[in-house]
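Input record, target 12 of the design panel.
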């Protein structure tokens, strides 16, 4: 109820306060009033002064909002770096598992022509897997470097 009352006052206050101003002469003196003060009352139009700046937000509030945005971005950068580090750990783990599987498969290859062909095929597959995972790790490292540079710029550590 109190909130509604305050809202109603806030909405109607400008309309109420924007009343007319009258100028008249009373006993030889100029008088200003919100109601006609005599037969010679003249209505005066009062205008608010023009705004000097383009914004109604104070400079301190603007600085606060800018710092808040910087803090928000720094937090997001920290989260992105943490996620990229996790991705690197997962990629290394998956790469190691793939290489262990290659070693197991290679151990099963017989010491004959068919086994040698299969072992060569396994080696090629293992190298492709290694390159794939290493590419993921390298990409994450580049992204982490970019985020660290952005963080340093935000902190003024150029």
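The sequence produced for target 12 reads:
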């Amino acid at each position: 109820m109190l909130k509604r009352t305050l809202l109603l006052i806030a909405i109607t206050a400008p309309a109420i306060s924007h009343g007319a101003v009258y100028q008249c002469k009373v006993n030889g003196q100029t008088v200003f009033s919100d109601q006609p003060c005599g037969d010679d009352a003249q209505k005066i139009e009062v205008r608010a002064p023009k705004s000097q700046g383009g914004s109604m937000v104070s400079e301190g509030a603007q600085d606060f909002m800018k710092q808040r945005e910087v803090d928000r971005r720094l937090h997001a950068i920290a989260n992105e770096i943490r996620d990229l580090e996790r991705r690197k750990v997962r990629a290394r783990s998956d790469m190691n598992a793939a290489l262990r599987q290659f070693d197991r498969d290679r151990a099963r290859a017989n010491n004959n022509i068919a086994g040698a062909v299969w072992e060569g095929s396994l080696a090629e597959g293992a190298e492709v897997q290694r390159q794939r995972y290493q590419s993921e790790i390298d990409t994450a490292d580049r992204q982490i470097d970019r985020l660290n540079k952005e963080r340093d710029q935000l902190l003024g550590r150029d």
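The chain has a mean pLDDT of 78.
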